[in-house]
Amino acid sequence: MTVLNIPKCLYTLSIPKQEQLQNQYQYFNQAIQEERYRAERLEEQLADLSELHHHSLNNVQQELSGIEERLEYRSEERARDLQDSIEQCATRVSTNQDYC
Description:
By secondary structure, the protein is mainly α.
């Protein structure tokens, strides 16, 4: 139990009034301690959520990088295929012109 430092001016109050003030003091002191505890828990939860959010963002960025690389590879592959098709068509056209 905490020792109360009651100001000397309160000693002149009647005993019931002193007890009432002491009870109020204890009540508010307990309420402050509970709020402090709750605030500390909320700070911990916020820190945990911030860390989780940070890791999630990193995972999303890595996934996007992987998708970008795959898309780039596929587009280059598709461009090569199209270039090959164009060259084949050009060869057929020039071969057909030679026969005409």
